[in-house]
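Quick question: what would this complex look like in 3D?
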Amino acid sequence: MRGDRRSDAELLAGIGVGDLGAMRELYDRHAPWLSIRLSRRYRDAEVVADALQDAFVAVWQKPGAFGGRGDVAGWLWGIAIRRLISRLRGRREVILGYQHAEDPVVPAAEEQVLLAVEYGDVGQALARLSPQLRAVIQAVVLDGLTTKEAARLLQMPEGSVKTRLSRAKVQLRAALLEGLS
Amino acid sequence: MTTWHVSEVVLRRWIDGLAALPDSTSVEQHLLVCGQCRDRVRVARRDEPAAPVPNLDLVWDRIRDAVELPRASWWERLLRRIGLPAHDARLVAAAPAFRGSWVMGVLIVLGFAELAAQLGHTRGELFYLAVAPLLPCLAVAVSYDPDVEPALEQELATPYSAVRLVVLRTIAVLAVSVPAVVLLNLIFPAHAPFLWLLPAAGFVTAVLALSTWMNPLTAAVAISVVWIGAVWRASTEGAAGAVLHTQFQVGYLVLVVVSTGVFVARGRHVREVRPRWNRS
């Protein structure tokens, strides 16, 4: 970005040739927000720590998987949330932390969308959904997970995810139409 | 790059896990594209967040340990996938029999033996009979002979059952060498297909049993000399194939049983015998 600071993509190139310093820099830059965002998805800090570790080890092994498209941050988040989900495989505890979300690949004009989400009708409509429906919308629509991944993260059958998703869409649509009239 | 940034208050609420849904959605979306706000999170995170988050220094230590270890070989990962604990998988995979050069060498020797047998020459058949049953036991001996593989010294210096290691490696070596030999046998049907498997099993167990007294490679070489002598003698008396006749097969079976018994009974000596008596 500025001056002699290496860009994230340059750090990935460094990791590709085994530069542990580049790895450390990438970790210092991204682990703080990733760890907090993952903690919002799953409350157990131990599991989040494991997922974070898995994600960065995966980055070390295959830095070339970042194709140069989009932002490194979005790519990292995609890896981290999937590592969290695979860590949850076979766990039975109820997930408590799922409260927020979004889409890993962000369009250029995202500010307008964000302001609309924060202050506008969409945010209001989302906030009015029941917690169960909101969790599904967040996982599938905003976090961009597949219904299968969402089912694992939310620890419910895939069928329930689909049912709740369509129910949530109906409610959102109704809420937005209400806002227009 | 962007004119909109997360406000200080919202950012702090998000870090503490207290932000409402529209706020947290906006923050998370924004962080994906804004390095400045990511830096602000990094700084703000130094004040312990209200909700539990992982300790980043500890996680980094674990990442560093993981990436500094040499990457597991293809073999090792396969062994782990079929359920072997990571520690065992590493020890088994470290055996030289799993290096590509070894497998290639075994295949080339067998290929020549088969070719010779195919040519119909009695010497060819002799060569094949002499070599095929010996290869598995030589592979096993080499896979844990300390002179061939110095790394084993260190492996066995750690508290680990030597018998367990030897047995695991033997199974793994056989899993590689026997299918290779059988495959070649199917491609070029020999005069006595598969009959050599029983003597081969006898020699492998004999190497294991003898290794409780002596160096495994020495044992394997001794067995090889005896076997080649026997094959040679059978050939001078008529047909080399006689060594695979039924009455001898019973003998090989007895060898398997007795050797297994000896190895089980004397297993604790495996470690002591590995010694350096044959080094200066």
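Answer marked as accepted. The first helix of chain A runs from residue 8 to 16.
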